[in-house]
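Service request form, structural biology core

Requester: graduate student, group of Dr. S.
Request type: structure prediction, single chain
Budget code: on file
Notes: please return the result as structure tokens.

Sequence provided:
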Amino acid sequence: MVEKAAAFAARSHEGTYRKGTKIPYIVHPLETAVIVSVMVSDEELICAALLHDVVEDAGVTEAELLKEFGSRVTRLVMEETEDKSKSWKERKTATLLHLENASKDCKILVLADKLSNLRSTARDYYLMGDKVWQRFNEKNKSEHAWYYKGIAERLTGMEEYPAYEEYKALCKLVFG
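Core staff response, request fulfilled:
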């Protein structure tokens, strides 16, 4: 099932790149899945990590996911999917509110996704400094700090995972 999800994600994200880079987008879901697989051996959760952006960014429907990967994978992906019709601040606020009562599985998925994003941002921050924020829709570093630190505060129960400690350390490195 994991190989099927990886192939599905690769097809769905084909021809797309990480914001402001020449890095194929599929690198992000693959890294997210690797982070999840270090935390748990749950194949459905690993599949959700691979697929977490296909609805939001690649036009895949919830029905397609349900047909191909079943209800649990689909539910996890949909929990992680933002409503792109809303503003950046509205989407991020909704994520933070959702995390306050989210399941451990959802928190694992969010931690892996945001850690992957933060690793990428930290690498580019070393190279570019504050110019890195210009590649994003939200260009204000303090808004990103609010969001990423808010994620860390709401990932209660994740302290057992080294990924959580890495996440907090990267927040400190990038945002102070």
